[in-house]
Every structure is written in structure tokens, then in C-alpha cells.
Amino acid sequence: MDAQTLVQISQLRRMCKSGEARAIREAAELTRDEVASVLGVDESLVEMWEKGSATPQPDVALPYGELLGSLKAAMAAS
Q1: What is the C-alpha to C-alpha distance for residues 31 and 4, in angstroms, rounded to an integer?
Q2: Is the predicted pLDDT of residue 36 greater than 90, yes or no?
Q3: Does the global pTM surpass 0.85?
Q4: Cα–Cα distance between 51 and 39 in angstroms, integer?
Q5: In CATH, what number is assigned to the domain containing residue 32?
Q6: Buried b / exposed e along 48-67 (16+ C-beta atoms within 10 A)
Q7: Domain total in the chain
Q8: By residue range, what is the domain housing residue 72?
């Protein structure tokens, strides 16, 4: 794992703990189940990430961060 990957994982984990990840998902009108389905995880895991009681592991943190970034950009463009 390189330094850039660690930075991306750290940013995503901060987004989860701060509530930003949940805010982005809700603003995009997506359910936790929909996000979980795309990431290949259980909905309860997404809930724990959004509450800050668990942190995404690297194998799912990167795709989750990319999804949130894409949603945020799409909402900003509209």
C-alpha cells in the first residue's frame, strides 16, 4: 500500500466519523442498503461506519470513498 492510498483511506474514515458520509448518501437520496449492495457488504456495516462505531477496511474504503466523491461531485454539478 502506498502513501496516497493511506491518505485516501484516512480521508474516508474521517468522513464517516464526522457524519459527512451519511450526509452525502442522504443528499443523494440513497439508502444504506443500496450503498451496501454496490460495495458488496451488509447494510449494518454501512450503518456502523456512518455512526463511527466501525471503520471501513482498506479493501472497501477505497471504493466507498470513490462512490461518495462521485455522488458529491454529481450533486455539485446539478
Answers
A1: 29
A2: yes
A3: yes
A4: 18
A5: 1.10.260
A6: ebbeeeeebeeebbeebbeb
A7: 1
A8: 3-77
